[in-house]
Amino acid sequence: MERLLISGGTVVDGTGKPGYPADVRIADGRIAEIGANLKAQAGERVVDATGCLVTPGFIESHTHYDGTMWWQPDLDPLPGYGVTTTIMGNCGFSAAPISDDPSVRAEIAKIFSFFEDIPEKPFLDELPWDWRTWSDYRRSMESHLKIAANYGAFVGHLALRLAVMGNAAWERAATPAEIAKMVALLDDALKAGAMGLSTNLLDHDGAGRPVPTFKADDAEWTALIATLARYPGVSMEVALDFVIHMTGADSIRRLAKLCDGHHVRVQWAGGVPNLKFQEASVPETKAMHEAFKAAGKDYWAGYAHVPITSVINIRASLIFAQSDEFVWHELVEADSDDKKLALLNDPDWRARARDSWDHKALKHSPFGNSEKLILLDSENGTGPVNIKVADMARERGLHPSDALADWFIANGLDSTIHMTPFDMIDDVVADLLADPKSVGNISDAPAHGQMFCGGGYNMVLFDDWVKTGRLTVEQAVYVMTGKLADYFNLTDRGTLAVGKRADIAVFNLDEVAMRDIVKVRDVPNGDGGMTWRWTRDAAPMRLTLVNGEPTFEGGKFTGRFPGQMVSPTIGG
Questions:
Q1: Beta bridge pairs of residue 20
Q2: Which helix (H) or strand (E) holds 115?
Q3: What is the pLDDT of residues 352-375, one digit of tens each?
């Protein structure tokens, strides 16, 4: 492991304190010294950081690399955006534990495929599946994986239910004996270093069926919460519905009541909504959040600082179903091009699609407002492109659903349309960025790889918020480093201090930005070929260090894979 001296930069240490000129010495993967005018020692390589910020590496607080990291260990584009740690296993979805029943393993893959757009075949083929418990899963990852960033992982509530109950987890509450087995599996995971428990009270499948965690009764929740409370370093992440059926506030009230009497850290993901269509939920949820803080509750509001935006396709997109647009979702479920084209040309399907578009699709969804849909990317160049579906429909005298069907037929089934970003409530975002009990930098990378590229969202805080004066550099760095390290109880990283792990980003503020998305074909399709995903060019960083090793330097990924599994400091 090489020794480095990062010289001449401005240190922004991740605590929120003002930056200051200093050099940083790296030895044996840790920060050995921070000070002014440090002299290079024998065997050290000097990195010139003149004009640059030297910060802790950025932490991605909400990702879904559970499958993707097995076939994309470079985690592109994260190294070029200064990311040194990712937290996965969110939203109740994790690859462990699993039962001996192969159908349950297949169900896990289907869940990731539908809800996170992680390709099903490589998920089954590329992972070794040499585990049953979460502790076995950790051993397998540490044995088989070499990746470009550190990673921590929640154990998913859906995985617990499916491992114990099989596919009955979709249908009913657990028995006392089944709850006891879930508790044992959760205890195994927490002892082995899981970040905590993630769960889901948001998602519904392609038939509108709620995910299995909706079937958990109070007895199950109480048993799992009590188990978490024995491990003070861990947390519970809850995906809430402020998007589909708007049940998020009710879910918060229910789980907060069940958490009473147990000291457990909880992240309400989306717990204070910040999109314009969610505006009616803001007063109630903000009031709850403030009441929790006043009462000394260890409850945190998770949020994204970028709006929901998607590139929509008819190959593998859940956005139709999540918009209650189930007729168009039939295209996604059709398992061949011939079947998709037959539906697009079928007068009966078109009539049902028009009715669904007008009367069933959620009004805040893109299918409730065709002004939000832009024809983006034609497979064969027929066009038109870069115009709104609504405008094309008006020009041709068609219903928007028929106009879109005609466009897919003419342009090819690999063509895509773009959903313009939802309008954000900037004041709410600003409040959350400053809130001491908030979890930011949620990106969802690399999920929905054919819908958007979550990698790179972190640069919006610099390229937009800092450069427009709404946030200081120190605040932006703190939100994505020291604050998240404190939340996840990662005590050996997240700030620049002597003895800490050398997870470091070096960059010139004038050089970095979130770059435009580009399409690349490097995702295995499970049939020996490749399919595509969105990525983006590097910000770029001048240097990204993970445990003291460069993962991005000289404008490119270095080919090194120094990432290690991270865990909260736990006891119990």
A1: 11
A2: helix 102-116
A3: 999 999 999 998 888 878 888 999
